[in-house]
Each structure stands twice: as C-alpha cells, then as structure tokens.
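Quick one - first record:
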Amino acid sequence: MTTINIQNSFSPEANCILFKGNVLDLMPEIPDKHVQLIVTSPPYNLGKVYEERVDFDIYLDEQKKIINQCNRIIRDEGSICWQVGNHVRNGEIIPLDIPLFPIFYDLGFHLRNRIVWYFGHGLHASKRFSGRYEVILWFTKTNNYVFNLDNVRIPQKYPNKKHFKGPKRGELSGNPLGKNPSDVWEIPNVKANHIEKTIHPCQFPVELIERLVLALSNEGDVVFDPFMGVGTTAIASLLHNRKSIGAEIIPEYVQIAQERIRLAESGKLRIRPMDREVYDPEHSAVYKPPKVVNFGIPSQPHLLKEKPRNEKGRK
C-alpha cells in the first residue's frame, strides 16, 4: 500500500496538499512557476452551498484575483483548464466562458481549445432547451507547452480504413495509436447512480480530469485545483503519479477528499473507467466494471496500450 503525504498547508515535500480555506490565502505561499497544470471549475455565482451570490461584477473581480495568481504560479510550459457552464439570472443565461475569456487574454494566455463536455443527463428546463453541455477553456502560458496527445488517443471509428489511391494506396489511413479525441467529449456527469457520487452537488467525474492530466502534464508535475470540492482533481493526479494541490472552503468537502485518497491508498476507491463506452440501450457493449484505484499500481491504463511517449512531452 502506498501512503500519500497529505499536508494542510503548502509544503514542497507533500504529495498532496488539501488546504481548508479561501484559495487566496493559500496561493501566496506557492512559489512562482511551481505548477504545471491548473484545472478547476469555479462557482457559477448561483448561490449554491459553497458560494454566496453577489453582483456579477464583483464575481468577475474575484475570479480575476485568482486568475492573476494562477498566472504567477504557472510554469512557462504549463496549461490552465477553466471548466464553466452558465450563470442564470431571471431566467436568462450568461455563458461564463464569454466574460472570463478577456481576463485570460489580457494576461497573455493562448486559448488552444474550447472543449465541449457533453453529458446526456441533467435538469429538465421548461422555458428553454435543457442544458446538456459545459465547456473547458484550455489556455497555455506560452507557445512551448506540454501536450501528450498519444496518452489520450481513443480507438479509431474505422480502424481498418485504408488509403484508396496515391503512394500509400492499400495502407491503413488512420494513426495506428488511435485518433485524436477532438474537442467534444461525451463523458457522463456525476449523478445519483454514478459510482463516484458524494454529497457534492456539482462533482467532477475522475475520467474528465484524467484526460487533462495525462495530456497536459508529465509524471512528477504539480497539478493545482483552486476550487477542489471533494478532491477529484487530486485523485486523478495522484493516480497518474503527479503531485496535487487544492483549496476548498467547505470543511466537509475537505474531509471527503481526504477519505477518498485514503480509500485509494488501500485499494478500495472505485471509479468509472476511462475506456467504458457511454451506455446505449440499443447498442449495449460489453460491460466494463468500475475500476478500483490503488495508488502505486497503475489501475487506470491509458485508453490504448503500448503507446510510445513523446520524449519531451512538448508540442
């Protein structure tokens, strides 16, 4: 059994930092250019249990303070993934990626993808179409950034398709390692019957963060989540031999995050496997049971086996 060194304040020796409190009290302790990947989903200013609904300009100003600190602690080859949905006011939606984009742009970040995270279930609207997606804004600090595409390739839709003309006629036309997963990701959200469900109302699925961790960082790197909730980013990072830093203001969520990590240490934490297809009642595939996480043992393989790794992990 691998024991994770968990600290409740910043320590460069820690495998995992679970800070209980406002992230702005933690971030000044993190050195410049210390973090390779920042991945998070901030509050949407909806008045949920973990936030106070405020004037929208105040909300954006608070976001800007945190993003400014992210700019300081991120490495030059690092990435920021800001996952957001809609702010709703008087029945009208404000897609949060629209007002947040200029904050990153003004700091010199480069938007590489606006990833659409599609999920098939959610609240049913009666006065507008039901929302079934959110977005991940993937920014890089510079033009020299980590991007391990081979780590997250998915099976080809037509694996036996061949070139029909030219010098490669008769050869397979697709990449033998699999295809690029594109910028539309269908990953189930964490609802009541999800194997990873806790008390958090808006919980990340582990596989969503795994794809970002595997693609945008290397083993031994530091991954930071300013709004860590119940520790999903920490689970995904530690599972793939990264270090994790997170902050959360709700004490019960911090406790759950620690309990999930301890379960993973003892081989008792179950998660949805990355390679399980989304359930289709008309075309049911072979059932893949939940994966059991055991830190120190690679229990969650890459989507395709025996894939060579880019030596430097750079674009």
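second record:
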Amino acid sequence: MTGFPARKSGLFWPLLLLAAFVAPMPALAELKALNHVDPKAPCFRWPAVDYDGDGVFDRIDRCPNTPKGCVVDEYGCSVDADGDGVCDGIDQCANTPAGDPVDEHGCSAAQRMGSKAARSATTEGTAEAPKSTKPASPPAARPSAPVSEVERQLVSGGKVRLENIYFETGSANLLPESETTLRDAGEALEKFVDLIVEVQGHTDTRGSGSYNTKLSQARAESVRAYLLEHFHLKPENVIARGYGETQPETKERNDEERLRNRRVVLRVLNPEVLPKNVKVEEH
C-alpha cells in the first residue's frame, strides 16, 4: 500500500491544518496595512508612518526622533513654553525663570527648594506657597529655516512665479509633484504674517477666453486652499484671482512658450511689510 510519508506517520492531518492557518496570514497583513494611511496627505493617500511616535506623520514631521513624552506642535517639534531646554510633557516645573540652570526634569534649584518647602508647609498645616522672585520667560523662538528660492524672490521683488506647479489636464486638481514648491511658498509666507498676497492663475490661449478665465480662477483658488490648509496664514490675506489668457509672457510660437504662459504667481499687495529698501516689481 502506497501513500504520503506524513500520512503513514500520523502527521498528515496536523500538517494540513497548520498549512490552512498560515496561508492567509500575508493576505491579512496586507489588508491591515491598507488601513494605515494619512487621510490629510495632499492629492493622494500616503502611508501613515510616525517613526518617533509623537503623533505627527513623518510626511510633515520636521523634527524626527522627538523624545518620548514631549508635547509637540503640528509640525512634530517639541514645545518648551518656559524656554529652559526641557520640553513640555517632561518638564515638571513650569515657568522656570530665564537663565536658571535646570535638572533633567526642568526644575531649577530654587524650584526644587520651593517644592520641598511647599510639601513641608502642607505637612505642618500651613498653606503659604513660595513666592517667585523673577518673571516667567517667554517661549524660546524656533530657529529660522534656511531661506528658499521662493522666499528670496518674494522678498527681493515682491513677486514670484511658482515653478513646478502641476494640475490635471483641464482641471484645478493639484498633482503630487506640486507639493515641494507649495511647501516652500507656504513656509516663506508664514514668516510675514501681515503680508497680503494675490495668488494669480494664468493660462495659454488655447480654448475660449471665458473658459480660460474660469480655469485660471479655479486653479488659483486650489493653490490658495492648499496654503491655508497646511500653513498658519490669515485667510483674508491670501486672495485668489484668475487672469486667464489676458497676461501672456510669450507669443506662444511653440509648446514651450505655451507652457510658460500656464503659470501660478504670488504677488505682494502691501510691500511696506517687507524688509526696507526692497524694490517691488510692478504688475
């Protein structure tokens, strides 16, 4: 009588059950991974990765390797309200006076003594709290990011053409390739909170004038919406306006010149808030 060795040894059925259990595991793992996505990723779904576990996805986390327990802002950078070098969440002594050296818990010698005195007073039946002799220090300023080309042009000329902004054909839907330039633009605008800018949309001359005006307006509004959603900007200071084909840069003698006419431009409307002695390009 012939048969499988496993069947002869009595292991056939246990091995068969084990194979039935293990086989679906990769498929289940793949299905589970599909649910871990970043719903706020622009234009498309992005894997929701957060390696330092601070609650901010790595896509926008500007401060990787944040220590465990630190309170972070929306960009994943730790918050230190009293500026003592120990982040909120780990800091056990808030409002440390400026300049006082602190321990790993964010407490100065005076605060440690005051804490002991308060505990002693409570034990002895007195409720008098220690008095602070110095005012609380303001939050430490975050270091400025390196100046981008977008910021340089915005400050030096009051007007910047946003290169590498792409939309779906005949649509105002931004493509993922646009994110780098939009991030540079948003970071530059954040440094000038009172700056009023016009987001200009322009098209080439193909199609009717009314269609191009509507399309350029929709694209300008799409860029404005992205900037307001991802950066700390005042909505009333960011204005979208579509100019259609009315302000061409070239005569459109070839495809390259038509491409130059399809553009998004940021133009400063109140140049007085920019650094002094800067000549702003006229519209």
